[in-house]
Structure formats: C-alpha cells, structure tokens
Amino acid sequence: MSWKIIDYTGWGRVLRASGAMARPERARKLADLTKEGGPAVGNRRSYGDASLNNDGRAIDMTRMNRIIGFDAETGQVTVEAGITIGELAHIFAPQGWIPAVLPGTGFATVGGCIAQDVHGKNHHNTGSFGQHVLSVTLIQNGKRVVATPKKNVALFRATMGGIGQTGVIAEATLQMKPCPGDVMMVTEQRAENWERHISLLDASTAEYCVGWIDATAQGAALGRGIVEEAELAKGLLPKAKSPRSVPRDAPNWALSGPVVRGFNATYYRRVPTSGKSSVKRIDDFFFPLDKIHDWNRLYGKRGFYQFQNVVPLSEVGALKGMLDRIAGAGLASPLAVLKRMGDGRAGHMSFPMEGYTLAVDFPARDAARDLIAELEKMTAQANGRLYLAKDALATGDAIKAMYPEHGDWAAIADKSDPERSLETDMTRRLGLRNTG
Fold it and tell me: I want to staple 382 with a disulfide (CB 3.0 to 4.6 A). Which of 9, 207, 225, 318 is the partner?
C-alpha cells in the first residue's frame, strides 16, 4: 500500500495535520504518485504549515536522497531532492567543495531549500540558494519538466521560493563553491547595544556573518548581543560528539521570563569584552542547534512560533522599534538572530531583500500571537516582508502586499497545477493561489 495515514506537524509543533503520506524510493514510483496528487514534503523544518496538508495527501521525499552526478573540476552536483544540505556539506567539504548557501539546519532537504529559496549567514556576499541552482526537474502530474535560468525561465523563477506549487521537485543541479577544508575560523565580538550591533554587521568584510541578539535586554542594553564572523579554513579537529536529544516535552517554566533573561545574560558574558577567536567544525558554525535533536520540544507540548522579517536598510529605526516592543513584552526565547542581507533573490516569492532580518522565537501563548500580529503590521508599515518558511500566523492580504510579484507567481502556479493538487494548509490559509 503506497499511502499511510499519519499525524504530523511543522517544526514549531503548533499547527498539525493528519493525512495520507507516501514515501517513494524510485523516480518511476514518484511519477506515479504525482498523478494521484499531493504536495511534496521533506523533513518538515518549515516552522508553520508550509509543509502540511491536513485531510489530504502528501509525498515524503526523504528516501529520494541519491547523488546522481558530481563534477570534481567544476563543483556541479546533481542530486535527488530528498538529500539534506548537511549531507552535501559533510560529503563534499573534505573534497574541496561546499554548498554555496547553507541555512540554519543541516536537516533541510535540497527540495525544501529550493521551495523556500533559503538564505544563510553569507547572504550579503553570496545571495540566496536558488541563485546557485543550475537546473531543477519537476514532476507535474507524472510528466518530467526541466527548468533552468535560461530554459523555461518563468517556471524556474516561480519554483525558486515557490513553496512547492509548480510541481514536485524531483532533482536539482547545484553549483557548489570551492572551500579549503571543513573547518571554520570564527571571531566573536560583543555588541553592547543596538547601534553597536548594527555597526558591526555593516562593517563586516567576512565571508559569513551573523548576530545573536538578546531579545530580552531593554533600555541602554537594547539590542545587545554577539556578532560572529567566520571564514572557511583547512584543519583537523577531534571527532564530533554524538548529538544529544530532548526526550520529552519540557515543562512550561523551562522558558519562563526569568530563566530566559538569566540564560541570555550568561551567554552574552561568555564572550569577553576583547572578543574571542576559535576554530569550529562547519556543522557547529552553520547548524549549531542540530547538536540537540528534537530541540523544539524545549518549548513544551504547545509548541512555539518564530517571527522572522526583513526590512530595507533605510528602515533600521523601525526594526529597532520592533525589538523594543519584543523586549518589553518579555516573551522571547534565547533564540534570536539579527543579520544584514544583500539583495540576492531567485524567485517571485523569495524572502530576501537588501536590509536587516530579525528572527525571534516565542513559546505559543495568546500574548505571543497578539504580539506577532502587531509586528506584522509594523513590518508592513516599514515596507518589509515576512518569511514564509517561518510563518504560522500571517494574514493573506499582508503577505500578498509584501510580495509584489505574487500575481505573476500565482498565474504560473495555476498553469503548472491546474487541479490545485499541490496546495498546502499555508497556501489555503493565506489564499496564495488566488490573485485577487
């Protein structure tokens, strides 16, 4: 039997689904399944409902994870969509190549990285994931269709960041970047406040740069944090320790206000005022939370929301106002990130724009939902946008306004999937397949 009824969630564990899931292992079986309908899903690392299809079918791509071909001279690799980005990094970094863009988790599949046009800690230098995709093979109702930046260009653009609505992503050819080895030379600096944090991000010339921000600090310390800069390097480190796991849902007090403020203060002070340099494994730098399997259980059985937006460079003051509102609410977790982004984006619905992006996690509470609704409005007023890979609460009108090419994307998605068999809970919630 191909289909099995399962219960599943997004990474935030707030939004849930139940439906028929199939897990093909071969291309022919995948093609047959697409005739029966249902969107493709990977490891479901999107936080909200982007990969959910309640009461419907879905195709689990995680067994479609083979490397089809690799050119050691050019760094071009062709893979099935279910392989994870972490696997590619681990396999090819020792051979002198690494994926050009790595998101915050190595468990994201290549298909998922394309569907969300993910960005990494080097977006200001390298752009988004889709800008390094040389070709993508889609299955549309059993038929293979290939799109590239030069062939089926409109379909290619609609697929990059297109949340899986133009066809099931089956294969992709990626252009990786040369790397000297599989370690990172990392420098950390304290940022005492918002202005210092922004100035460090603006001044960075490092290949990779990211800021951890204390989203509970207020007053003169608002925006304090740690800015990490890193470069790929060659070296040897001891064998990595086995990942730990969170065996059960944490109690509600585990991320209470006093606990989070105490943790943040300690984490901030771990970097001396003079700064700190170290050598890290690539996965320790790119995927720090992957060392704790099922870390989303730390938020308890009710789960959590992540709010992530980006605003133009000129709206940095508006973003500071949002952080002030977050800090005053006392709802944020220790997981908060601030980055400067470049203008690279590959598709109509790609998230990035040149500016600053803020990502903050909140335990799922009524007060958090109210706060996120307020932050959505503030983002719209600042001419920014929200990240669909993280969203669980946005309104459709706001999202469509934030993505001015939405109409072009929706027209191509409807042409590619006229029966709307690829729709998900997110596309229905936000009305994304509707151009009106």
Answer: 318
Question: Helix, strand or coil for residue 179?
Answer: coil
Q: What is the bridge-based pairing of β-strands 183-191 and 276-281?
A: antiparallel
Q: Output the pTM of the full model.
A: 0.97
**Residue 224: is its pLDDT beyond 90?**
yes
* Separation CA 325–CA 346 (nearest Å): 32
First vs last Cα of the chain: how many Å apart? 40
- Residue 143: what are its φ and ψ, rounded to 5°? -105, 135
- Beta strand segments in 298-378, E: 304-312, 336-341, 355-363
- Angstrom distance (rounded) from CA 300 to CA 363: 8
The domains located in the chain, with CATH, are: 183-399 (3.40.462)
**280-303 pLDDT, tens digit each:** 999 999 999 999 999 999 999 999
Euclidean distance between CA atoms 348 and 432, whole angstroms: 12
3-state secondary structure of 199: helix
Q: What is the largest CA-CA distance in the chain?
A: 62
Per the structure block, which two tokens stand in for 389?
Answer: 């890979």
